[in-house]
Design brief:
Elements: E1 6-7, H1 16-19, H2 24-27, E2 35-36, H3 40-72, H4 89-113, H5 117-144, H6 152-182, H7 194-219
Antiparallel strand pairs: 1-2
Helix pairs in contact: 3-6, 3-7, 4-5, 4-7, 5-6, 6-7
Length: 222
């Protein structure tokens, strides 16, 4: 006789009281308050979201620092002879590719939820390719800029923001590759697909961060 594993609710906040009023897409990101072993996925996702929130604090501190420095150095933000980052065709294509990859990776997770494993793999592989394309495009853009890391505040802040973000994109690509390899292991999804859900959330996170960075670095003009 198979016994169902029961988890004791140790959450300091009783989410169950208001969880039933939330839309179904949001319920999966919140702990379900103990119960059966199947609920472990929701608890793990909630913990991963807390991790992403901690990462967002780091990005926000960098962004606020950039904005504060930019506002206090309006007259001498760009050193003589420096044009700064430009909204080029390369940057636009990179942005479209990265943001579009969020739709692809979400479609891949949806395919896995419906047991369409081959479709999941192809869409997941496409996301990896799009992320890699963004990283290559970012490197090409850096090589064409007329300023470096030590070129005043514009150089230090630009490379800090884009470099830290690119590091997260690289980490996301590695995570996606790991999940793709694991998809070929027999019985890998018998206990759920938390890794895929976490990787999907991480990818959405780096895309959202890029929207903010793109806005302040390329659209903000004096």
């Amino acid at each position: 006789m198979n016994r169902r594993t029961i988890y004791i609710d140790e959450s300091p906040i009783r989410f169950e009281r208001w969880r039933k009023y939330l839309p179904s897409w949001l319920k999966r990101f919140l702990p379900s308050g103990g119960g059966n072993a199947e609920d472990h996925h929701g608890k793990a996702i909630f913990g991963f979201i807390v991790f992403l929130l901690s990462e967002s604090i780091i990005f926000l501190s960098f962004i606020f620092t950039y904005v504060a420095l930019r506002l206090t150095h309006l007259q001498n933000w760009l050193p003589p002879g420096i044009s700064g980052p430009k909204l080029s065709t390369l940057v636009l294509i990179n942005t479209v590719v990265l943001l579009s990859s969020s739709l692809i990776v979400q479609s891949a997770e949806n395919a896995l939820q419906h047991s369409k494993l081959n479709q999941f793999r192809w869409l997941w592989l496409l996301t990896i390719g799009m992320g890699s394309y963004f990283l290559i495009g970012q490197g090409i853009e850096w090589s064409k800029l007329d300023f470096g890391l030590s070129t005043g505040l514009v150089g230090s802040t630009f490379y800090l923001l884009t470099g830290f973000h690119s590091l997260h994109v690289l980490a996301g690509v590695i995570l996606l590759v790991t999940m793709l390899v694991r998809s070929f292991l027999p019985g890998n999804y018998h206990q759920g697909y938390f890794g895929v859900s976490a990787a999907t959330l991480f990818w959405h996170f780096v895309d959202i961060v890029w929207v903010f960075l793109f806005s302040i670095l390329y659209l903000w003009r004096d």
